[in-house]
Amino acid sequence: MSSREYISDIEYLAIPYLDEDPKVMDFRAEISDMVYADLAKQGRFIYAPISSCHHIAKKYGLPRDWEFWKHMDEELVRICKTLIIVKLDGWKISTGVTAEIEIAKKYNIPIEDIDPEKYLIQLGKY
Question: What is this structure's pTM?
């Protein structure tokens, strides 16, 4: 199996993240973790940048804006087989999610939506 075939199995999880309130970003990272876990339990091979990088960015003071992450995210979306969008409040105006959608369209990558309602219910936020 070539590395390209292996990489093509990855699905990219997009979720709104940046907010003025750090508690909102923590909450969004928690939702990302929950969705990631659900999808992984289904046997799906997921890359979730928020789940992967939130704690590192927080602990080591990395920037959290799109400008810092855009090159890495574009490369990762480009090689994924699917872009999965968690339609959490703010997804339509999220700079990152909007850019990730445009990248997926540019490379003809299918887009799948996830309704976050069940995760919000689990966290008592619905």
Answer: 0.88
